[in-house]
Amino acid sequence: MECASVKERVSEYLDGAVSVEERRLLKRHMNVCRECALESQRYAELREKLRSLPKRVPPADLTTRLRVVASKVRMESFGGASPWRRWCDRVELSLRNLMRPLALPAAGGLCSALFLFSIFVPMFKSTFAMSVAGDVPTMLATQPMLKYTVPIAFGNNGDAVVDLQLDDQGQVVDFTIVSAPGEQSEKVRRSIENSLLFMKFWPATKFGRGVAGTVRFCSSRIDVRG
Amino acid sequence: MAETAVGLSLEACLFSHEEDALVTALSQGSDDAYEILIQRYQQPVYSLVCRLMNDPADAPDIVQEVFLKVFRNIGSFRGNSSLKTWIYRIAVNEAYNHRRWFCRHQRQEVALGSEEAPASYAGGMTDPGRSPFEQAADHETRALVEQALEKLNPKFRAAVVLRDIEDLNYEDIATVLDVSLGTVKSRILRGREALRKILEGRLDVENVRWSSSTLSGQPLTE
Questions:
Q1: CB contact under 8 A, B63 and A8
Q2: Is A67 found in the same domain as A43?
């Protein structure tokens, strides 16, 4: 084997990329040719130097960057959501991010307002509508109610609306005609006064005690044939 | 969901057909598969790209591009070569493209300092059995080899790096570089020759320098 061809094959020889026969021939040549043996040794040393080069360590943020890329590609390929759905999700996320800082203060404010309202409202409001007659819970105010009356009519045709002022015993102390046919006439006024004689009222109460109050009384005439 | 269907776990990838399983899981969009791929190939690809580029500061961007292409095109991987070879091929092409782009658009600005910290050479540098002097000499030699690699023709350089640093066989290198086996052999030989010529003068000078400094330092150490 010639030195020139050995030098051409020495690189492959070192990498073990030659046939068994070629390897034998190359080895035999190098045993007798010092120059080619040195050439082979130099290549071997060079290869060792290259192999001993330290591994390059990637920067710390590279893994995060690659994970972001992976996530992006995965969403592109396997997200499955339509553009409309993606747009909706984006809007929903924006709204959620916008409202989240306000959620706690708003909830706290609402609870505080409800608490204060429940404390102070009985003090400000004096009367409550009662649906069950005679059932007077303490701590609440009631309006005066009609105890009994007689089937009489005010005025000429019986249609009238009258505001009655009651004392703490339920007695009528005064009245004002709101609306009645011919309300200015003395006859109507007397008719109302006579009717009031036959009426009895439960007085208005506050915390279970009778107080003066006002009640609006309406009467209407019904004619029955027979 | 793809994850549950595939049922891939880190442990499962340790079995014999792990590469096939990994590729299948990747093509089905498994989170674990993406993570395994990143953990397994991030460092080798980064190392390869660093050695193919003159400026290691560009390497993270190129690695990111490489993985983007791998994730997007994993469906087109047919298994004709190993996954590593396929990824390396993308990395080499990406590095070439970047180099071409860089040559066309020469940088106008000058960087104030390299982002690559010297600490990136850490690991493998410290050898408790060697003296500080020997470690310093090794460091010097490695720096010279790195500089010599940068001066090589890019084609020879890729072949030498893939063979001597990444330890790929000739067939895999031919696949990565998309050239014939004969061309691979030729490029490796020419690359090694060129590298040796570049290093010959320098290493001799370094050896003399280190030897003389050792001799002059001997009385002081005794």
A1: no
A2: no
Q: What angle do CA A149, A150, A155 make, to 5 degrees?
A: 105
Burial (CB < 10 A; 0-12, 13-18, 19+), residue A184, is: exposed
DSSP A184: T
Q: Is the pTM of this model over 0.80?
A: no
Alpha carbon of A10: minimum distance to chain B alpha carbons (Å): 8
The CATH-assigned architecture of domain B8-106 is Orthogonal Bundle (1.10)
CA Rg value for chain A: 54
Is A133 inside a domain boundary? no
pLDDT, one tens digit per residue, over B172-214 is: 999 999 999 999 999 999 999 898 888 887 665 555 454 444 4
Each domain of chain B, given as residue ranges in start order, spans 8-106, 130-222
Reported ipTM: the value is 0.71
**Domain boundaries, position A210:** 141-219
If asked whether residues A103 and A121 sit together in one domain, one would say yes
Residue A78 in domain: yes
| Residue A87 Cα, gap to closest chain B Cα (Å) | 22
Q: Tell me: do A215 and A145 sit in the same domain.
A: yes
Nearest alpha carbon to residue A208 among A146, A147, A134, A151? A134
The reply to whether residue B46 touches residue A62, judged by beta carbons under 8 angstroms, is yes
Q: How many domains does chain A have?
A: 3
From CA B107, how far away is CA B103, in angstroms rounded?
9
Across the A/B interface, how many CB contacts are shorter than 8 Å? 114
Environment class of A174 (CB within 10 Å of its CB; exposed 0-12, middle 13-18, buried 19+): exposed
B50 touches chain A (CB under 8 A): yes
Among the candidates A75, A101, A125, a domain finishes at: A125
Whether residue A145 sits in one domain with residue A171:
yes
Look-up: residue for tokens 């600490």? Answer: B119
Identify whether the C-beta of residue A208 lies closer than 8 Å to the C-beta of residue A136: yes
The predicted-structure confidence for B146-163, as pLDDT tens digits, reads as follows 888 888 888 899 999 999
Domain B130-222 classification at class level: mainly alpha
Pairing of strands A145-148, A172-179: unpaired
Per-residue pLDDT tens for A22-67? 889 888 888 888 888 888 888 888 888 888 888 888 898 899 999 9
Residue A225 in domain: no
Q: Is residue A118 part of a domain?
A: yes
What pLDDT score was predicted for residue A153? 62
Query: Where residue A17 falls among pLDDT bands split at 50, 70, 90?
Result: confident
B67·A70 Cβ contact <8 A: yes
- Three-state DSSP at A160 gives strand
